[in-house]
Structure formats: structure tokens, C-alpha cells
Amino acid sequence: MNIFPLRELPLRIKKKAVQYMYRHAPELYMPGTRLKVVTTMYKFFELRRKAKSSRMIIFMTEGTEFTGLADRFRCIISAYAVARAHGLPFYIYHDKGFELTRYLEPAEVDWRIARSDIRRGLNNVTLLWFIDKWPILKRTRKEYHWYWSMNLFELGVIPEEIRKTCSYSSLFWSLFKMSPHLETILAAAMNQLGMKENEYVAVHIRFLNFFEAVEERCDATDGTASKEEQLRMINRVNSTLHLIHQECRKPIVLFSDSNKFLAAPHPEFVLQLPGHVGHVLCYEHQESVTDKAFVDLMVMSKAACVYSITGQDIYGGGFSLAASFIGNKPFKKVPLAVDQTA
Where in the sequence is the domain holding 68, given as residue range(s)? Predict the structure, then answer.
């Protein structure tokens, strides 16, 4: 393989090359060794290549270890809001974990883009990374590659004039419509529940590794808590579910990242959807697990209200919040009930 030594590059290009390697191709960065750039990567920085007029925003997963489903959507919708505000075309290049079009297809906007149509090179591209405020985009001929951001709607940094004309939910359904496959498995799930939209509430609780080491070893059965601690946690959650039921007077559909917790006994007014729960980062290209994640998200988005139980040993996460945003439904955080055995 032909290589181009990084030390032979100008200092300005060196810095950009290292930055680009971290973000676009971290596997090419070799800690503890002399940095080298593959010839094909050096072409990314070739100054002779001139960009045509191609101002657009592209949400990218390429070259990154992207995380969960909710994280991807918060980035996509935030990026799309910025593109709409600036009158820029918007595209999605999703190549991590699953085929996005298996579940969601273009609606009002054809956001699909081929890898060969994406420009390369820092004279052609501006990288947008960890956006936590409303970005002011310069007038440039470059493409904007959007990699990571907070939920700009949740942060409240969306300009007033933008929030008046669109919401997270309206932007989501402007971009996406459910694929025939997602419509089919979602209809089956709703039929199994025997309820329609707004006839139930959703309760979500994320334990991370409390019951199982779900994000350390995807097939692990041993969590970080003892059996006694796990039993107390189940009892406290069930007490919390009783309090929620007293408030809403609707059936509860329970969601969690822990299969062990979901298999435990729960009150009679609590319903669940079948299937193995798994994080899409751990179960890449395992369609049954990704099917379950999308169904859970959509069923949750159709609830009359989405509750998230919070407390010690509980990881917040953004899954339930994303569902409430997608469905434009109320979102409430509920503290875990006090341990009566303490």
C-alpha cells in the first residue's frame, strides 16, 4: 500500500489531516506509531480539486462509532432544522448498524445520497461536530458534513421564527414516512396491545448495566447489581408504576433496555411488547433487534403521554424523549419511588 508520510505535509494541512482522521477514518490513526496518511486519504486534502457550487448539509455516520437510535434522530432533526432555516438542501448518509430505508423512506424531502456523490477534502467540506447551539453558517461553496449535535429543540436554542413554523415532529414527518416493513410490524404490535393511539401511556426506564451488562458485552447476563439490589429495584419500579397509573388512569405500556427487568413480575395494568431488547450499537445488522427498537419508538410516540422514570442507578438516555418529540406528546420525568425496605 502506498503511503504519504504526514511529516512531509505543511503544518496547516497536518493539523487538518489529524482532525479529519479522528472524525472520518479513526481506524487510520495508530497511537504510538509514526502517523502516516494513505494516498487515498491525502487526496481529500488535494488543493487542486475545486468545489462546484454545492452548498448543502449532509448528516453523516461514516467514519464514526455512532450510538443509539435516539441520538441519530436528534442529530438528523437538528441538522434538518438548520438546513431549512438557511434554505439549504439536506441529505442523510447513514451507513452504521442498519439500513435506514428498511424502516423510514423519504417523505417530502428526498434525503438519500450515494457515497460517490459526497465531496471530500477540507477545501470542499466544512465539518460540523458537537453542535450545542444554533450555528451561523457562512456563505460558502462548501458542503457541510454534520456529525454530532445535541437536540437543539431540547436545548431551546432554535430561533423563535423557526419554532413558530415547525416543530421536531413536523420536521420528522417531513423527512420520513414509514416503510411498508415498519408499517406492518407496527400494526402487528398495536393489534397485540389491542389499543389505539392515545388510549395508553408509555413508561420507559433505562438501567444500562444494572441488570445485564447490555452495553459492555451484548450477550452478557450478569449486571453490576446483586440479586437483592435487583429485587429491590423491581419493587420500587412497580411502586412507581402504581403512582403513574393513579395519575393517568390508563393502561401502561412498559419499555426498558433490560430483558431481565421486563421478564420480572409487574402489576396487572402493565402491558409489554414481545421481542428481544438490544442497543442498536451492540447488535449491528441484527434485524430482529432493530425491528424491536423501531417498533418500541413508534408505539411510544403514539402514547397519550410518555413517562421516564429517573433516580439513582437509572440512566436517563434520550429514547423516551425522542419518542415524545416524534409524536408531539407530553413528556414527564417521574422520580423512582422510595425503597420501603430501607
Answer: 56-178
d(CA 316, CA 297): 16
- 199 shares a domain with 170: no
- For residue 312, give the C-alpha cell: 439513582
Per-position DSSP letters for 78-120, written without gaps between them: HHHHHHHHHT--EEEE--SSS-GGGTEEESSS--B--GGGS--
| Residue ending a domain, choose from 154, 178, 202 | 178
Residue 265 contacts residue 233 (beta carbons within 8 Å) = no
> Residues for the chain: how many in total?
342
Q: What angle do CA 255, 256, 262 make, to 5 degrees?
A: 85
pLDDT value for 47: 40
228-285: per-residue pLDDT in tens? 999 999 999 999 999 999 999 999 999 999 999 999 999 999 999 999 888 776 666 6
Averaged over 313-326, what is the pLDDT? 89
pLDDT value, residue 282: 67
Choose among 82, 159, 167, 169: nearest CA to 126.
Answer: 82
Instruction: Tell me whether strands 104-106 and 176-178 are parallel, antiparallel or unpaired.
Output: antiparallel
The structure's pTM equals: 0.81
> Both 164 and 184 in a single domain?
no
Which domain-ending residue is among 153, 178, 203? 178
